[in-house]
Design goal:
- The chain is an alpha/beta fold.
- The chain has a domain at 148-304: Up-down Bundle (Glutathione S-transferase Yfyf (Class Pi), Chain A, domain 2), CATH 1.20.1050.90.
- The chain has helices spanning 44-52, 65-68, 103-107, 150-164, 168-188, 193-228, 245-252, 255-268, 270-276, 304-326, 343-356, and strands at residues 10-19, 22-28, 33-37, 77-85, 88-97, 113-118, 121-123, 135-138, 238-243, 287-292, 297-298, 331-334, 360-364, 377-383, 386-389.
- A 6-stranded antiparallel beta sheet has the order 2-1-4-5-6-7.
- Helix 4 (150-164) crosses helix 6, helix 6 (193-228) crosses helix 10 and helix 10 packs parallel to helix 11.
- The protein is globular, with a radius of gyration of 22 Å.
- 43% of the residues are buried.
Length: 393
């Protein structure tokens, strides 16, 4: 990975076809800051979700692809972007094609198939888009991240890792499948030691790789935050760490030794795991620990406003880390973030976003939230199925 970011790409054109509330949309933007304003339910978040599909995974809502197809449409959808990049223009596309329109769909029966294309050529998966863009985002459902269950923080952490390591999602999915297989064998054939040995070898290899990738990202992000923190920033810095038996193992042993030790743990814990109906030790039991740096208190004990500011600061720092590690300045998607900030923090947010150097897409119900960005942002009015300049052409 490059140690210095290249100049940022921008989405110059976004085309949607039968996506969510949009029968057809052809949107052109020209500025690095884009603000979408409109009433709740108008379709602002749908635009951010469409852009987020150029990351591996199911987008910022974590929805099934079939749910994204317009209700009155044919059951398929298409999203494409034209990137204005320092090294030339590229067109990326993804979507859901109805059964029968691809050879893959024909082989798989009636199930619709996701397609990915780069400059008109078919790509194997959304992972291929990582060569052209990276994306980070913040949505209202993350407001409870610090006080919610550990599973939410693991998903958040895996998304942080995915933005710098496009293969991380593949490893996480493979680990989940291997764990399900082990759990099933423990339940149905607990005495089949050869089968369990083989499964646990696969689980251990994947688990150590996932845990190591998480640890590297957390350590790099924590280091960047401490190196770049500003005491007078409206967004307090965070300190971070990982908690879990496997995380301790990965932190103290070489990967090969950690893998052997974890495999032995899986073998010894078979009776306990069978009784529990799940594998109790592993990356699936880890937690991301975050503290409010200036106050040195657990993030979940800070006030609601402090937690929001802490989370914004964390996402901004992550965007800088992505640029540093990948050499690609990321796109930033912010859904309804500015609405809950006081004027000082809102001004601080806009200044921080501009300093990142990448393109930022924001949403908000009240146009006044973006009044200070006049002349610096494309402010667009969103109504069901339509997007146009706020003050007309």
């Amino acid at each position: 990975m490059s140690s210095a970011p290249v100049a940022a790409s921008r989405i110059a054109r976004l085309i949607l076809q039968d996506f969510r509330t949009y029968a057809s949309l052809d949107l052109t933007v020209s500025r690095p800051l884009v603000a979408l304003v409109g009433e709740n339910g108008a379709g602002k978040t749908n635009v951010l979700e469409a852009i987020s599909l150029f990351m591996p995974g199911r987008g910022l809502r974590r929805a099934e692809l079939a749910e994204m197809a317009r209700n009155e449409g044919p059951g398929s959808f298409a999203v494409s972007v034209t990137l204005d990049a320092p090294y030339g223009e590229h067109r990326l596309g993804t979507g859901l094609e109805p059964p029968g329109e691809t050879a893959r769909a024909s082989r798989e029966g009636s199930r619709a198939s996701r397609v990915c294309r780069i400059d008109g050529m078919t790509a194997s998966s959304p992972t291929a888009f990582a060569e052209y863009l990276r994306i980070v985002w913040l949505t209202p459902d993350l407001d409870a991240l610090f006080r919610g269950p550990a599973g939410d923080r693991r998903r958040f952490l895996d998304r942080l890792v995915l933005a710098v390591d496009a293969e991380h999602g593949t490893r996480v999915n493979a680990l989940e499948r291997a764990l399900r297989s082990r759990n099933r064998v423990l339940e149905e054939n607990p005495d089949d030691r050869l089968w369990l040995d083989a499964l646990e070898r696969e689980v251990a290899e994947l688990a150590i790789a996932v845990a190591a990738a998480r640890r590297e990202t957390v350590e790099r992000l924590a280091s960047l935050i401490l190196e770049t923190r500003e005491e007078d920033s409206p967004f307090p810095f965070a300190t971070m760490g990982l908690e879990g038996d496997l995380d301790t193992l990965v932190a103290t042993l070489p990967a090969v030794d950690a893998e052997d030790r974890y495999r032995a743990t899986l073998r010894d814990y078979r009776p306990r795991d069978r009784a529990a109906g799940r594998t109790l030790v592993g990356p699936q039991a880890s937690d991301l620990l975050v503290r409010h740096g200036p106050k040195d208190i657990p993030a979940n004990t800070a006030s609601t406003g402090e937690q929001k500011a802490l989370l914004i600061g964390l996402v901004l720092a992550h965007a800088r880390l992505v640029a540093s590690m990948s050499g690609i300045t990321p796109f930033v998607l912010l859904d309804e973030v500015a609405a809950h900030l006081d004027p000082r923090r809102r001004a601080g947010l806009f200044a921080a976003l501009e300093s990142l150097g990448g393109q930022v897409w924001m949403t908000g119900a009240d146009p006044s939230l973006f009044a200070e960005l006049e002349g610096r942002a494309d402010v667009l009015q969103v109504s069901p199925g339509v997007i146009e300049p706020l003050n007309g052409p």
